[in-house]
């Protein structure tokens, strides 16, 4: 009798559990997709619970025939089970199914989501393949594709190309009011801010950062609002407002830690370390550079600033004469550089001055030799002497070649009657109009540009695309397109070319100008500082302005004697 009672009790409990689970599944399916996502992330430390919510989201999407939410459900499941194939295989299945149908949305949007997945895992080569498979994309998908192409260009330091794709996306999205609340639009504003920051265009960076802050506040997206303020801290850092930047970086750490954004956390730790070093707080700088290294060790996640941390730590252990740690961080740097080279699929043209790959390998060998103590002092000294001698020959040869190149450029420049662009400017005809602007519009803009050049209005340091467009009674889009087609360059390059031409003619013909400082000349021709003038001068002539002036003075002194 007792056995029968126990058996009935077990059956009763089993039925109760089944009934409760069935009711729970029905309850979950009545929740919205956003509610299920929130439940997933809130329960994430509990894997079993998170799996239930991820599966519920997928089943709800399947029931409602919502393809994109089905994708989201599979993504959550792949995330919690740490198996990316769950998501990628589902993407591939959808691509195979949808490519049979004539649709502008599919399979393009699946390729986009797959590319986005790869990009956020720093697998840019695979991401690019997916984005390039997006055919005939229109509207939002096309805009987002351009944004990610810009991100990939940015990752290999092609700043101008990155900005081109960003602005293509921005020009489409900026007038779509409902999109101002999407994470993609807010992310785009921050990316444009970032690229201007890397170009050294701090005014433009500040302009887009302001837009980003306002848009994130309006959309009540606290995550992007915080990230926008993080970008403001980066601007403060570049403006050498280190204390202010440091406050922003430190405030951002708990936010990205909670969001589990380890790439950004790694970068932030490196930035904090660099900032502390800039204000001469060595101990805290060391602490945060070690934190950046720790994330790399545990998560195998790097960032754009991680190399700075490795360099700092290598220098630190050099000062301590700790050979084992030196070797460790040399290997770290080599590992990081090789990873970057593989991602870019080309040799990195801008190795760091202190530790490019060949020098790191040589230094690694030297440290190993010291550790193993296998080579006598005399032999080691001989190797060092020979290396230094060879390096001296290379440097001397490089300097001689460099001087000859500069001399040829100077002679070519000074012998020109007038500095002109070698590129032929297209005449304004109806057949050359690739932007479908009216002939009258183009002619009016070209006439306005002629007056702009004739009156040397380009010397005004406040001139920008918007201001000039207002003066010519047109808009920035038309003006930019006309300059691109008929001046064969961008607006900023066009203005800089005019300023450099003007400066060259003044320096050639006015002896007083040769006595000016570089800063004074920069201000005279409309640049805000000497550095931007020098960069523009070198870009358009291949010479530094100081060298050009020095050689001009020499030539004139020879003539007078």
TrEMBL record:
Coiled coil: none annotated. The chain crosses the membrane at residues 383-400. GO terms for molecular function: DNA-binding transcription factor activity; sequence-specific DNA binding. Residues 459-551 form the HTH araC/xylS-type domain. Keywords: DNA-binding, Membrane, Transcription, Transcription regulation, Transmembrane, Transmembrane helix. Pfam families: HTH_18. PROSITE patterns: HTH_ARAC_FAMILY_2. This is AraC-like DNA-binding protein.
